[in-house]
Design goal:
Chains A, B, C, D: GO terms for molecular function: 4-hydroxy-tetrahydrodipicolinate reductase; NAD binding; NADP binding; oxidoreductase activity, acting on the aldehyde or oxo group of donors, NAD or NADP as acceptor. Four copies of one chain form a homotetramer. With about 375 residues, chain A is α/β, with parallel strands linked by helices. Helices cover about 35% and strands about 20% of the residues of chain A.
């Protein structure tokens, strides 16, 4: 049994609270505590659940105490007690924390809201665990970028990927938000093409030929991605599905099993008893995926709240170097979180839809 | 230790799957199996979780088997093996099942989608557990009616209720539905005043002076109720809160704790680790509740998927008569499900908002 | 023919642009120009439509000119050319403009986002036109308060109103907003009871016994109000409908005519060819309205973008005193805008729903 | 002045009522009447506006008369009085009407809900007006297909189009629908790839190399399309914009003008005074459109209620042959409807976004 890694989480929001729970679920890690500045039900609940709560600022400490929150101390004390701090503070704020972490000699993991330049290393476990070994810092890329890297790397590893063009339909805000952060009855395209996710994926896998376009939809949970991929050679649907299944944290779903929309997967996670209803996997529709010659078309859904959680866990092991083999870290993380390769059994592979053949009779002259 | 009650669930949908899990959580009950006719992920997941699955019809059995679902048998076999069947089939269908249940000599519990006349008894545990003792059938009233009866009975028991007038803002469809069952960017008032919930509450507590008006809003989870109550005498806010807290399955929440909307309670349930994120309690806003003379105004939110679950569990004990005391059954059910009287601690009671005093200077002449 | 009133509009947003169009539609008014600080399509379109556009600030002027917007001048020049300025700037900003208006000796009308104290007079044409005659300033109350005053005054004028308790389901943001101003898949109750609309209605009709509770729903257009009214005496549904029809700017709708939700009225306005699809009337459901003894229950929908527009037009005449009789001003305004007393013909009055009688069998002993 | 074409509209819904208004706006057409079976506000309003209303069925006639709707007759009488009938009945129903139309010797136009095989000719004015000349029937393709054909044909006519891959984010239901036809807080991908729009576009322009993928979003109006196009040669952004502007019924919009989302264009149409707020043009974002080498990326929004209206008008002229030149028919239609080539002036063409250059540094080795 290897040494226990002492972990702290700074920022107990949508990502932070999930990272905290995931750390607790690992046999080789200990959650020393979480730190924040808010004093409402989110932190009160953490205290009730026995999680040591620290204050990220002195002002925060006063407000939290007056709200009846028992504090284990302030952030600097948490930093003195941990090997790794996972920064889950709001976008851009993390950057200002780096010096603080360095001063305490703790290794730090940042989230996708920060720029690649902050750490000089962007992380997706399967893609580049090895290059993060022993580093002082890394950045776990955003939910959209993580999903993009997972499926494109699966195709790349199989020698099938030439270039990929994606359209990302993002959720507008998080389910708990009620203070005017949403959009209503509209779709909002991003200001520029390409959207940031394509270039962001290249910070993890530099030689990806990828371009993304993105828009925000009027829903609060999960993203939907559509990809048009140029393959290096013609391939059968079966071969593509094999390549995707071979990749950790990608799970196939089927319309034939009743999984027909984003909210189907949300209900499925609840039925599976997942904590908070989280889906760590990228759920690819096996019976919508279509290959035509050297062109591949597919779509999947991504749980924006959960997909980066296992990556954060692996990043902790990579920075500390307690596990040298990325595959082994992924195996441990996924076993602890119950990550699956396929959501429904029996895994009856769909035959390429008949309609497809017809649809691709192609241009008529 | 009393005998174990053998329970079956017919209809494994939003309510049925929750009743099944709640039965499993009771020490004095055994879930013999669930029955349905669908063959998608919802039943596949039940099988994966080790729940014996039966087919409600012979046609259903064929479809389910061909979908790879291992069946424990058909409904009639389930009925031969249980003491009580909880009918969670879609509204109006339950009625056609009653004879089938009678023929097998099993006691039956129906849901709020059925009419009171079907069983002649409508059930809310605290209000009329005793009158259900030993009966062959009862009907657990709908989520909106259950919540209505809980808070009004709390006031009635305290001798405070003269009459109540409510406006119910209902969710439009369930979170998992994706097949054109929703409404979009609108509010739809019910066709008539009063809406059915008021008269329905009188099937449980006949002498309630209650009138309800209802509309469907453009959201998928939880209802919001507003009540204007005429009290029998002037009362302090503190006295009202005491009366509500004295009632099982009512839990106070506070805006001051960050619980400011329907989706705040949904996030809170996830943070509390509730299975499926369920809230069995009626969540009353303690710091919005206002009393002015003999008028009481308050609002609360109701989890339409979960609020009736503990009532179904109590109904099982009442029909079988294994527990004669309603309070004892409620105690057991709530302990097994982790039902709470208050969601956040410390329970700092809000002082009646200053603005209120001013606002109620009342008419100016 | 009376003199032409020279009118300016400061703030060309949701309300401002509608007031501008309505002023143009009046024979006794001239739209001298509109003023704002934004430089996007909203102002570009005004220029294209031939409306003189002024800049409310010098900085705004620079930005607008660089955006290619031809300016007629700056706000102070508009103020020098008008008799009345209608302030439609965002809430709270209007207050800071008052001195500017006074300095130019122009009469000023503010909107419901400002406090009553700013002008000392709050306006709803039918209720208190006379008291605004010749004043330098007044405030047209908010959309919710305007609708509240209209229907309650109708009952009051008929000698039927004892007290009124209302629940207001508000739209969350305006249809054009796309910049994170909305709420999603939730309902947000207001922080306190009573909500401001009740006390606000008393600034127009001081002796109203009214209390309101309000929540924001997940939709972008129109409010829905539910009222529980204590009558001074028993009255027939027919008598109530007569009282409502006798009041200007209240129009009856019927579910029987297919008007079943908020978005039905929006479609109806488009079918009627209303500019921008605006509904100036409060649309009361005649066949949902129910009377039981001395209790009246009814619901209506309010176009939050349009309902205050005719009130602003009347306020212009009242301040200038060109029309002494409120009824005459209302007649002119409504004729110019095509306001109706009933939306659908033939006006078959519904018979009190049979279900109602039954529903009100009332408490069972 | 050419002869007046006598036109009837069968099916007075979202499309039918717009076609009726557009026919009335043409100098060379006469709206003889509209026919339907419903008897609610939609038809009552048509009567109020002076449109002759016919009953599509005898049962419908009875219901309509009893609802107080004055009928001009039944469908067969309307068919005896027109040269062309525009069938706007719900999808699939039109097919059953064809024989009825033939029996009366009237030319017939169907909508995109019908199959190409029904008429053997699918219509988009600019693309194939000539091949519809004198035909007995044609089918105006769906809103999504119409928009697809317009922009791809613009590129094809400029000799720039090699192949196109599109992702279509569709609205879920129409704004007026309130009867459980919507989806809520989700996105629903279509069952198969390609979605029908790509092959459907080939029924109009057979040699298009186009593939589409589609999903329904949680909004009620306008679609958003994203395209990845392989060009025949490198081209400047300016050249692409010229090609799009040269095509009728495509209008450029700019984020720089404040048009940032689907609901921005809806508000813009209202500001422009468009009847029902309709947008007949495909609104392409000029400052999001990006070219990189031989790849073109762009996005636009489509008013699903209005985009096919001008096509129906042209189809009427084509079938009757009164105007032999498609360009002349388009000119007349667009002049009558106020169709524009650009929505905002001055038309400052955006310079290719600097960020783009950087973003396309492309793969890093």
């Amino acid at each position: 049994m290897d040494q226990t890694i002492r972990v702290g989480v700074n920022g107990y929001g949508v990502i932070g609270k999930r990272v905290a729970d995931a750390v607790t679920a690992q046999q080789d890690m200990e959650l020393v505590g979480v730190s924040d500045v808010i004093s409402d039900y989110r932190l009160t609940t953490a205290v009730c659940r026995g999680i040591p709560v620290y204050a990220s600022t002195t002002e925060g400490a006063a407000a939290m105490r007056s709200a009846g929150i028992t504090l284990a101390g302030e952030l600097h004390q948490l930093l003195d007690a941990v090997d790794v701090i996972v920064d889950c503070t709001p976008a851009k704020i993390g950057a200002s924390n780096l010096e603080h972490y360095r001063a305490h000699g703790v290794k730090a993991i940042f989230q996708g809201g920060e720029k690649h330049a902050l750490t000089g290393h962007s992380f997706v476990a399967h893609a580049n665990y090895a290059t993060a070994l022993g580093r002082d810092t890394t950045r776990v890329v955003s939910c959209n970028t993580t999903a993009t890297v997972r499926t494109l790397t699966a195709l790349k590893d199989a020698g099938l990927l030439a270039k990929a063009r994606g359209v990302l339909i993002r959720r507008a805000t998080d389910p708990w938000e009620s203070d005017h952060s949403g959009i209503m009855n509209t779709v909002v395209p991003e200001a520029a093409i390409p959207s940031h996710q394509g270039p962001d994926a290249q910070t993890v896998v530099p030689d990806l030929d990828v371009v993304t376009m993105a828009a925000k939809g009027s829903h609060t949970q999960n993203h939907l991605h559509y990809w048009t991929v140029e393959l290096t050679r013609p391939a059968a649907q079966e071969e593509i599905l094999d390549a995707l299944e071979a990749m950790p944290r990608i799970a196939l779903v089927r319309r034939a099993d009743g999984i027909v929309a984003l909210n189907s997967t949300i209900e499925l996670m609840r039925d599976l008893g997942r904590p908070r209803g989280d889906m760590y996997e990228v759920a690819v529709w096996a019976d919508i995926l279509t290959v035509h010659g050297t062109e591949l078309f597919y779509t999947y859904t991504v749980d924006n709240q959960a997909v980066v959680i296992p990556e954060n866990i692996d990043a902790i092991r990579a920075l500390t170097g307690t596990v040298r083999d990325g595959a082994e870290s992924i195996r441990r993380t996924d076993a602890a979180l119950g990550v699956r390769a396929e959501f429904l059994t029996p895994a009856q592979r769909p035959v390429g839809a008949q309609t497809t053949a017809h649809a691709f009779e192609g241009p008529r002259s």
